[in-house]
User: Fold Calcineurin-like phosphoesterase domain-containing protein from Phytophthora fragariae.
Amino acid sequence: VYGDMGADDNSVATNKYVNSLVDEVDFVYHLGDISYADNAFLTAKNVFGFYYEQVYNKFMNSMTNVMRQMAYMVLVGNHEAECHSPTCLLSKSKKDQLGNYLAFNSRFRTPSVESGGVLNMWYSYEYGTVHFTTLSTETDYPNAPSNVYFTKRVYGGFGDQLAWLEEDLKAADANRDNVPWIIVGMHRPMYTIRSCGPDGVP
Assistant:
């Protein structure tokens, strides 16, 4: 279980370590901020280029050894929302093709259909004696923080996450004789000792 891995120089040691564990772990649960592709333009040499897809591909390629041998379960973080480099902001087609979590939802296969969830945004699955409920802390609930990026585009609109969550947890609770543990995964913490916005969002 980890989050905020990325595909830049800061993640090399972590990436190498995770790849070394393929014979020791059964699956990975990546808690959002998958590749940090949206930050690819934040260096002087990349500021006016288009590196979003290149960085996402670099991350996916670096994890091929892991992903081909075990389930690689993901959940959405704030860095999956969009490409907001100058190149993307100036191109309507890039904004449309790489906004509203499209790259994130296109690159992974999660059991959302089987669990009544939506894309990779929220879903659930069982592994052994554990029921995993995966949520979006970015969209589709009151005061969701997803719409604070440079483009100020309205993101989300995937469905009623809270209604789905209630039904999912009821079903999981009813099955506790067989699957006693319930773990809820999300990118942002429910509570934090650090500062948060006036709406309580960490």
Remarks:
- Strands lie at 27-30, 71-74, 123-127, 130-134, 181-185.
- The first helix runs from residue 12 to 20.
